[in-house]
Specification:
The chain is built from twelve helices and four strands. The chain is mainly α.
Length: about 300
């Protein structure tokens, strides 16, 4: 494997760290609000980059006039949207559009729409980090469903296992274009060469696994929150905080009980999915669930 320049790594970590520091003060940052008032032209220009994905019917933002949504570009584009005071909609859609194009193996082509070159190259590991940008800056988690959690895990597993051909713990790029530095063939090879265990790639993967662990922790904490799902009958079909939550059957329920009751398929799945991933409190969760399930 060829040596990788560390300049890119340092630059990438520095940019990513600064992005992480934005967090929750962005919306109310007076300096940013003042700066935005002078950026009407930029806001109007950015809106020309909003397009619709034909497969999912969702709108997304891209900096490319030819309408392509790229993997790592959307991470930095998300930061721009946060600074500009945009809603989280296009950022969330960018993540879910990629996840909804996932193959059974867990592989996701690195652009939407894809092409003959991108189709064999796995999406760069930034989806969990983008998701955390949404969680941290908008306090918006409801859109990230159980299915998306599973898809993101499968995407990360594909990087860690399928893209580590010699099982040495270091994943490989497929080509120079796959790295994002399209013409660095001397460093990372031509299409499908798969010769570079990139320092940049494996640094991204460290950050991506950390972000995914935070997502799992947040889901787990929500599961054990007595104001959300940790009721006397966990895990209810609706969170306690939701308007439709009721321990009494309503006239409009058609004889069903998908409100405050514990149901075996959904409740058991939620418990095992989160607790088995985090390796903690499994007995506590499963025991309470088994003692109180609805029949």
């Amino acid at each position: 494997m060829r040596k990788i320049t560390l300049i890119l790594l340092i630059l990438t970590v520095a940019i990513s760290t600064n992005a992480q520091q934005l967090r929750k003060d962005v919306k109310e940052n007076k300096k940013l609000i003042e700066m935005r008032s002078d950026l009407d032209y930029a806001d109007a220009l950015m809106k020309k980059g909003v397009f619709r994905d034909n497969d999912t019917g969702r709108d997304y933002f891209t900096g490319y006039a030819y309408k392509t949504l790229y993997d790592w570009d959307q991470y930095f584009e998300a930061i721009v949207q946060i600074y500009m005071g945009w809603t989280a909609d296009y950022i969330k859609n960018g993540v879910t559009i990629f996840l909804d194009h996932q193959e059974v193996s867990g592989m996701i082509a690195r652009s939407v729409p894809s092409n003959q070159f991108h189709g064999a190259e796995h999406v760069k590991p930034f989806l969990a980090q983008i998701t955390m940008l949404v969680f941290d800056n908008y306090d918006d988690t409801d859109w990230f469903t159980r299915d998306y959690f599973k898809k993101m895990k499968a995407c990360l597993d594909f990087w860690l296992h399928e893209m580590d051909s010699n099982n040495n713990g270091l994943s490989e790029w497929m080509s120079a274009p796959h790295t994002g530095m399209d013409n660095q063939h001397e460093r990372a090879g031509w299409w499908l060469d798969r010769v570079s265990e990139g320092v940049d790639l494996n640094s991204y993967l460290v950050r991506e696994t950390q972000a995914f662990a935070r997502i799992a922790e947040l889901i787990f904490n929500q599961l054990l929150n007595p104001e959300e799902f940790w009721s006397n009958y966990p895990v209810p079909a609706l969170a306690i905080s939701e308007p439709g939550y009721s321990d009494k059957q309503l006239m409009s329920d058609l004889g069903c009980s998908w409100r405050a009751n514990t149901w075996i398929p959904s409740g058991d799945g939620a418990c095992w999915d989160t607790s088995s991933y985090l390796k903690k409190d499994l007995n506590r969760i499963s025991q309470r669930f088994q003692n109180n399930f609805y029949l």
